Amino acid sequence: MPSVGEVRALLDAFVPDADPRSQRSVALVRELLERASDPFARTEYTPGHLTASGVVLSPNHDHVLLVYHRRLDRWLQPGGHIERDDPTVVAAARREVLEETGVTAFPVAGARVVGVDVHSIPGAKGEPPHCHHDLALAFESRQTDLRPHEEVRDAVWCPVDQLDRYAVDAALRASVARALQPGAMGWVGRNDRV
C-alpha cells in the first residue's frame, strides 16, 4: 500500500505554476491527507479518495495516450483507484495504464507528478457522488500497440498538438504540457519534434 509520506513527497515536488485549478487541487489533496482516516480507500466518500493516472507519451513524445471512459463519457488519461496491493502511487498508475490499454508505461528519471486534479464523480453502483483526488504521473511507452479493456470504450494515441480533437479538459492539457517541458523527466532534446 502506498504511504501518505510518498504522496506528500510527490506533492512537494509538483510545481503547479500559475494554474489556479492545480493550486486548489493540491490544497484539497493535502487536506484529504490530514483529515481522512484512509485517503486510499475507495469507500472514503467524504471528501473522497486518492486515485492515480498516467500521462503516457509515445516513444517519440509526439503522441499522448487517451482512453474514452464509459462511465464518464469523455476522453481522459488512463487511471483509477489505488489498490491495497499497489506498493506505490507510481505502481498504481502503471497498473491502471496497463489494465485499461495494454500499454506498459515507464517513468523516466524517477516518478514525476505533472498534474493534480480533484474532480467530481457521479454516483453509481451503490456509490454516492464523491471526489477523486487524482495524481497524474508522467510516463513514456516503448510500444504503440493498444489493447483497450472493456471498461474503456476506446484507446488512442492522440497527437499532442491535436488535443482539441478529443475535447480533453484543461487539467489534462496542463498535465501534457508539463510532461513535454524541455528537461522534464530527463528527456532533454527529445521533445523538440512536437
**N-to-C CA distance:** 37 Å
Structural class estimated from helices and strands:
alpha+beta
Helix-strand pattern: HHEEEEHEEEEH
Strand fraction equals 25-35%
In total, how many beta strands? 8
- Biggest sheet statistics: 5 strands, mixed
Radius of gyration: 16 Å
Tell me roughly what share of residues is in helical segments: 25-40%
Continuous helix count: 4
Shape: globular
Describe this structure in words.
This protein has about 190 residues and is an alpha+beta fold. Helix content is about 25%, strand content about 30%. The protein is built from four helices and eight strands; from the N terminus they run ααββββαββββα. The strands form two sheets. Strands 1, 4, 5, 6 and 7 form a five-stranded mixed beta sheet that branches. The longest helix has 16 residues, at about 20-35.
